[in-house]
C-alpha cells in the first residue's frame, strides 16, 4: 500500500528511498524502513526493493504474518522444567566443547553465548555476567522461546527457521527491544541422522556481527557435531552438562573463581592473592595438604598454622563449604583451571592450544615459593616447546610467544625468529632491530 503524504509532498517511503545508499543501509535508514513496514505504510514489494538484506526482509514478512508483536518486552516463556530439558537434550554432552571454545573467552567481553533447542527454546545462556543481566531484560534467558515465530527476526530463531548460519545486525531485529543488540548463530545437526538439534548463538554489540565471529560460531558448530560423533562411535558416557568450578590465575587480571548459577549464567568471584595461592596448591595436590605443609608452601618463613586455618575459614565462605574439606585440607569438587589447561595441552603436545590458553605468568604478585616454582615450570616448559616447534618451521608460534610480556626480552627467541627461514625482509629487519635494542639495554 502507498504511504501517506507528508507536508513536503512526499510519502514516508519516498523519503526513505531517497536516502538509501548502494551498500548496507545505516542503522537510522534501517529503522526507518522497519517502522514503515510494521506500521503498514509499505508492502512487501517496496520492502524487497530497498537495501534491506533479502534474508532479513523475508524474515520480517514471516514475523508479521504470524502475528509477532514488535513491541513485546521479550520472548515468551516456553518451558518451566528447564533443568530436565537440559539433562535430556542431545546437545548436553557437547556443552563442555562450547564452553571451551566460546564461553571461557566471553566472561569479560560483553558477549552472551546461548545454546537453543531445535524449537527455539533457550537451554543455556552464559558469558559476560553484566551482558547476561542486560539480556534478561528482554527475557533472553533459559526456558524462553526465541524461535522466529515467537520473537521475530533474531539470529538463533531465524537460523533455525532457515537451517543456515547467519548474522542479524542491530535494527535488523523485528522486535524493537532487541535492536540494541547484534547476534551471530549457526545450527547444529545430529551427525548420524542430519536432524536439526538446535543452534549456537553469540549475542552482544557490533563486535559479534563480523565475518570473524561468523567463522568462529561456524567452527564451534562443526566441533560440536564432531564431538557428538566421536562419543557415539566410542560408546563412552557424556561429560555432565553442569559446569565445574573454574579457577582463573594466569595473566594480569585479578584471580577469580568462576561458577554458574541456577540459570546457567557464569558468576565470577574475585579472589585475594592468598586464596588464589591456596586453590592452585590444592588443585595440584588432590590428596590434600596438612596445615603445616600448606604453611610452608605458602611462605617458608613467616606463616604459622593459626594464620593458615584462619585463611581456610575465610576461603570456605568464598567458594562454599561444600567445595573445601579439612584434615587434610583438600578440594571436595573437581575443578578446572587455566593453568591446568596449559599443562594438559603441553602434555598432549599441542603447543598451539597451550599458547591459546596461556594469558600470562601465574600469579605474579604471589610470595609463595611453591607458586614461584610452578610459575617458572609452566613458563619455561611453554617457551622451550615453542622454540622446539619453531625449529620445525612454526614461526607463527614463536611470534605469538614473543608478543607476550615474557617474550619481549627473550633474546634467544628473537634470535631464533631472525634466523628463521621464509621470513620477509621487513620481519627479519624488525627482529634484528629488537635484538639491537635488547643488547643496548643489557650493555
From TrEMBL:
This is GAF domain-containing protein. Gene3D superfamilies: 3.30.450.40. Residues 1-24 are annotated as: Disordered. Residues 117-227 form the GAF domain. It holds the Pfam family GAF. Residues 1-10 have a biased composition (Polar residues).
Amino acid at each position: 500500500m502507498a504511504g501517506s503524504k507528508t507536508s513536503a509532498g512526499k510519502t514516508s517511503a519516498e523519503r526513505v528511498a531517497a536516502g538509501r545508499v548502494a551498500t548496507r543501509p545505516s542503522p537510522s535508514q534501517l529503522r526507518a524502513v522497519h517502522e514503515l513496514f510494521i506500521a503498514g505504510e509499505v508492502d512487501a514489494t517496496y520492502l524487497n526493493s530497498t537495501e534491506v538484506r533479502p534474508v532479513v526482509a523475508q524474515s520480517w514478512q514471516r514475523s508479521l504474518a504470524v502475528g509477532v508483536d514488535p513491541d513485546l518486552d521479550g520472548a515468551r516463556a516456553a518451558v518451566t522444567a528447564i533443568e530436565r530439558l537440559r539433562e535430556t537434550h542431545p546437545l548436553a554432552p557437547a556443552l563442555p566443547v562450547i564452553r571451551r571454545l566460546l564461553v571461557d573467552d566471553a566472561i569479560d567481553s560483553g558477549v552472551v553465548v546461548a545454546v537453543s533447542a531445535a524449537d527455539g527454546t533457550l537451554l543455556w545462556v552464559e558469558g559476560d555476567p553484566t551482558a547476561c543481566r542486560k539480556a534478561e531484560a528482554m527475557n533472553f534467558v533459559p526456558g524462553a522461546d526465541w524461535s522466529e515465530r515467537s520473537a521475530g527476526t533474531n539470529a538463533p530463531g531465524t537460523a533455525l527457521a532457515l537451517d543456515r548460519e547467519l548474522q542479524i545486525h542491530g535494527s535488523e531485529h523485528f522486535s524493537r527491544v532487541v535492536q540494541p543488540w547484534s547476534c551471530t548463530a549457526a545450527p547444529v545437526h545430529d551427525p548420524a541422522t542430519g536432524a536439526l538439534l538446535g543452534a549456537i548463538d553469540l549475542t552482544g554489540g557490533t563486535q559479534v556481527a563480523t565475518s570473524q565471529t561468523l567463522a568462529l560460531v561456524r567452527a564451534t558448530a562443526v566441533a560440536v557435531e564432531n564431538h557428538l560423533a566421536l562419543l557415539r562411535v566410542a560408546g563412552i558416557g557424556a561429560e555432565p552438562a553442569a559446569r565445574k568450578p573454574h579457577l582463573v590465575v594466569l595473566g594480569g587480571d585479578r584471580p577469580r573463581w568462576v561458577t554458574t548459577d541456577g540459570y546457567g549464567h557464569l558468576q565470577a568471584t574475585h579472589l585475594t592473592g592468598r586464596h588464589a595461592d591456596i586453590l592452585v596448591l590444592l588443585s595440584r595436590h588432590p590428596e590434600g595438604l596438612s596445615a603445616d605443609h600448606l604453611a610452608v608452601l605458602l611462605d617458608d618463613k613467616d606463616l604459622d598454622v593459626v594464620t593458615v586455618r584462619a585463611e581456610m575459614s575465610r576461603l570456605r565462605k568464598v567458594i562454599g563449604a561444600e567445595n573445601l574439606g579439612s584434615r587434610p585440607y583438600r578440594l571436595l569438587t573437581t575443578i578446572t583451571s587455566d593453568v591446568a589447561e596449559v599443562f594438559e595441552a603441553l602434555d598432549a603436545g599441542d603447543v598451539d592450544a597451550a599458547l591459546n590458553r596461556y594469558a600470562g605468568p601465574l600469579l605474579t604478585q604471589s610470595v609463595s615459593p611453591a607458586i614461584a616454582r610452578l610459575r617458572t615450570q609452566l613458563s619455561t616448559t611453554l617457551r622451550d616447546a615453542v622454540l622446539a616447534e619453531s625449529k620445525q618451521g612454526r614461526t607463527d608460534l614463536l611470534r605469538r610467544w614473543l608478543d607476550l610480556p615474557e617474550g619481549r626480552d627473550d633474546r634467544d627467541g628473537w634470535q631464533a625468529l631472525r634466523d628463521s627461514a621464509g621470513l620477509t625482509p621487513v620481519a627479519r629487519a624488525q627482529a634484528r632491530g629488537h635484538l639491537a635494542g635488547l643488547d643496548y639495554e643489557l650493555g
